[in-house]
Design goal:
Helix content is 0%, strand content 53%. It is mainly beta. 30% of the residues are buried.
Length: 116
């Protein structure tokens, strides 16, 4: 079955960096676009970044452009989110997602807290 497992979250000071990972299994990873979402407390889940199956096309939310970079390693079945210049507004639970068949599949999420 499709499984997504995020890791790499934590507490970081404003201006700091984190690298999130999402390990995928149960499907042909290299054939599917992947995306990262986040959900802050009391807010709706929002798209942060997306990457095409081969990695050649990447899209970002305006709020993270120039600070976050999405990438993938199809040999390792893993998608990454490099987050630099973090701000308190980036505090949220971060999820990776794949659309497989007619369903959205989500990981369990990883908490990112940006605070001094």
């Amino acid at each position: 079955q499709v499984q997504l497992v995020e890791s790499g979250g934590g507490l970081v000071q404003p201006g700091g960096s984190l690298r999130l990972s999402c390990a995928a299994s149960g499907f042909t990873f290299g054939s599917y676009p992947m995306s990262w979402y986040r959900q802050a407390a009391g807010k709706e889940r929002e798209l942060v970044a997306a990457i095409s199956s081969g990695g050649g096309t990447r899209n970002y939310a305006d709020s993270v452009k120039g600070r976050f970079t999405i990438s993938r390693d199809n040999a390792k079945n893993t998608v990454y989110l490099q987050m630099n210049s973090l701000k308190p507004d980036d505090t949220a639970v971060y999820y990776c997602k794949v659309i497989w068949g007619i369903r959205n599949y989500w990981g369990q999420g990883t908490q990112v807290t940006v605070s001094s």
